[in-house]
Design goal:
By secondary structure, this protein is mainly alpha-helical. It has helices spanning about 1-25, 40-45, 50-70, 90-95, 105-110, and strands spanning about 75-80, 85.
Length: about 130
Amino acid sequence: MKDKNKIFAGLAIFIVVVTLPFWFNLGKAAPAPELELTAKAKAAKTCVMPTEFMTANHMQLLDVWRHNVVRGGERAFVNADGKLYDMSLSNTCLDCHSNKEKFCDRCHNYASVRPYCWDCHIDNPKGE
């Protein structure tokens, strides 16, 4: 019987210690960063997909684009509104979002992700 109580006490202490960081940081998340749009992005007023979709799913869209371009040879993307875009990170996305530090890096740093896009694509293809 004494061992049973020691086991429960040990488990309780373990659970408290393991979950302490979660309880300590509860409700203290930093707000999402403000993104700075270029003049061209502001003038366009629309992206290839709605802002909410791009915020949550841009990497999946870029993966589909990469697959379609590299394996299928497709270069054209037609969005839900029927507008035609070139499937190109460098020439479509970075045409409007040319300031990588003020646009891409802010969210990627906030989310602690390290995308591998820049292994192949330069971050400012037009030299702006």
